[in-house]
Structure formats: C-alpha cells, structure tokens
Amino acid sequence: MRRSAVVAVVTASLALGGGAGAAAWGTQQRQAADGRHDAAVARVDAARGATRDDHEARTALVATADVARATDLLDDARGALDAAVAQARQTLDDSAGQVGDDDAPRGALAAQLEAAEQVASSASPARARALTADVAGAEQAVRDAVAAEQARVAAAQAAARAARGRAAPSAAPDPGRGATSARCTTTYSGPSFYTSVPTEGGDGSNGRLPASALTAVSWTADSRGTPFYLRSDAAAALERLNAAFRAALGHDLALDLTYRDLDTQVAMRAALGSVAAVPGTSSHGTGLAIDVPELPCDYGWDSAARAWLVAHGPAYGWVSPAWARQAGSNPEYWHYEYRG
Predict the structure, then answer these.
(1) Residue 335 bridge partners (DSSP)
(2) Of 82-91, 105-114, 225-234, 304-313, which gets the smallest average pLDDT?
(3) Residues pairing with 338 in the sheet
(4) Please, which residues bridge with residue 257 across strands?
(5) Whole-angstrom Cα distance, residue 324 to residue 284?
(6) Distance of CA 311 to the CA centre of its chain
(7) Which of 75, 94, 137, 260 is at 20 to 30 A from 209, Cα to Cα?
(8) Which residues fall within 8 angstroms of residue 280, CB to CB, at 6 or more apart?
(9) Strands 318-319 and 289-291
(10) What pTM did the predictor assign?
C-alpha cells in the first residue's frame, strides 16, 4: 500500500514536470518567432526607407539638372535679346536722316526697342525669343528703308545727270583759305592755312593727335591734296551727315579745315591774333571741329547749306556752337563742332 502511494506520487510529479517543460519550450518558440518577425519587419522597413531615399535623391538630381537646363535656356535667350537690342539701337542711330520723308520704320523700331528693354531682364525664354525676332524684324525694315532711300537718291541723281546731258560739271571751289566761288568772294583775307596730318608721336593732347586717333573723310581733300582728318567717331558721323547733305542739296559738303596741329595753332595765333584760339585750346586740335569754306553765298548765314546744317547736323552730332552763331560772341558761319 505504501509502495503504491509512492509510485503514484512519482508518476504525478513526472507528469507535472513534463507539462511545465513543454510550456517553457512553447514560450521560447514564440519568442524566437516574434524576434524573427520583428527582424523581418525591420528589414522591410529598412528596404522601404532605402528605396524612398534613393527615389528622393534621384528626384533631387533630376530637379537640379532641370533647373540648370532652364537657367541655360534663359541665359541664352536673354543674351540673344540683349545682342539684338544693341545692334538695332546702333542701326537706329546710324539711320537718322537716311530714310527720306517716311520715318515710320525708325519709329516702329524705336517703339520695339523700348518694349524689349522694359522686359529684357525678366522675360521668359519664350518671350525673350519672340522679342528678339520682333526687334530683328523691325531693324531689317529700317535697313530696307535706308536702302530704298539710297536707291531713290541715286535714281534722282542719274535722272538729273541725264537731263543735263554731257555738260561739263562746274568747278568746285578751292577748299584752301583764300578760295573763291563763281558766285561770291570769300570773307577771309588772311594768309592761307591748311588742314593738318596726324601728329607723329603725338600723345593725344590738343594738337598732338596720333594717326591711331584720326580718320580721313572719304570724299574730299584740301587744295594741296592733304586728307581732312578728324577723330574717328567724328569722321564716321560726318560721313553719314555728308550722305544726307548730298541727298538733300545735290553735292558733297565742302571742307576747308579739320584737324589742326599745335604748330599750326601757334602760326594762326601769331598771324590772326585773338581771332584764333590760344594754342592748345582749339577745338580743331581735338579733331572734333570743321570749317567749311568762308564763302557767304555758299555757306553763309542765309545760305541753304547753313540752314540744312543747323537744322539737321545735330541728328549726326554736329552743331553750330552758340559762340559761333550770328549773335554769338565770335560769329563764324563756317565753323561746326562734333558733340556726339
């Protein structure tokens, strides 16, 4: 009886111990499974994060490249517009007085330039390209108008020559001091002076201008064959003025003196006294002044040539200064200066 009880106790203990071990094993298995699940979730989250970061990085790179391309397009478009505006502005300036009575093409170009300049710094690439095309078209219209006017003038001159037949042209007046005209006598009574050539080794000061600073006009020279030199920008402006003068009056502008070197200034002061500028101060010494012949009938106060020069010369930068006007401090109907 006692033996049976012992066996029963042992058997019960073994059963209880086996159940507890099984429970402990099950808990470990669940914990291990949970750990694997958590690790898997972490790996998935990491993979998703890496994918997201990679996508964001690629998106940022694409956006940066797009911005760079857009910036390049904008810079190119605005640069082309700036270049077109600068060229058209020069064409507008150069065409003053060159399109005859119809100035509408120049007015249209001026309006187009104003519109372009107002928005050039903020225009989109498409807008900048459109403005460039508009400016170029308006500029071409001005060029066409200039060409048409030149053709008209050439045709009129040809017709005039044909009407005159083979009659010999009248002799041009001697452009040196003391020159005379078939219609009237010069108002100058002093010794002859002539225009100066560039000053060899000149330092650029008044009356000492080197060849690099001067340009000879193309259509005339003085009575000794010396070219008429002016500062290069003044010479270019006078070329344009002469073309318009010739179209209006039928002959080139006659010249008497242009650049005057320092030695000539000294000689003129000695010969003419206070009528001549103090040496080193003459506007001729800067290459920015001309004298037309002192022929009152051809270029005097009431002449057609002077009326045209006073009215139209400023459009080319050439003016009759106040002191040289008829009521000025030193009246000289023959003297004009380039003011740009």
Answers:
(1) 291
(2) 82-91
(3) 318
(4) 291
(5) 14
(6) 27
(7) 94
(8) 205, 206, 207, 262, 265
(9) unpaired
(10) 0.49
Task: Report the b/e string of 169-199 with b at 16+ CB within 10 A.
Answer: eeeebbbbbebebeeeebebeeeebbbbebb
Give the single-character DSSP code of 254. P
3-state DSSP assignment of residue 95? coil
Q: Which amino acid makes up residue 135? A: V
H or E, element range at 233: helix 232-249
Given a cut of 70, whether residue 302 has pLDDT beyond it is: yes
DSSP state of 339: -
Encode 62-80 in three state secondary structure: HHHHHHHHHHHHHHHHHHH
State how far the Cα of 35 lies from the Cα of 44, in Å rounded to an integer: 14
Give me the amino acid identity at 178: G
How far is it, in rounded angstroms, from Cα 231 to Cα 298?
26
- Number of Cβ atoms within 10 Å of the Cβ of 249: 13
Give the distance between the most distant pair of CA atoms in the chain.
174
Tokens of 269: 């002061």
Q: How far apart are CA 337 and CA 320, in angstroms?
A: 6
| Confidence grade of residue 298 (pLDDT, cut at 50, 70, 90) | very high
The predicted-structure confidence for 239-280, as pLDDT tens digits, reads as follows: 999 999 999 999 999 999 999 999 999 998 898 888 888 999
> pLDDT per residue over 198-249, tens digit each?
999 999 999 999 999 999 999 999 888 899 999 999 999 999 999 999 999 9
| Alpha-carbon span 25 to 19, nearest angstrom | 10
Supply φ then ψ for residue 204, to 5 degrees: 90, -5
Pairing mode of beta strands 335-338, 318-319: antiparallel
| Amino acid identity for residue 167 in this structure | A
CA angle 164, 98, 286 (to 5 degrees): 105
Q: What are 63's two structure tokens?
A: 């956006």
Residue matched to tokens 């006009």: 217
Average pLDDT, the chain: 79
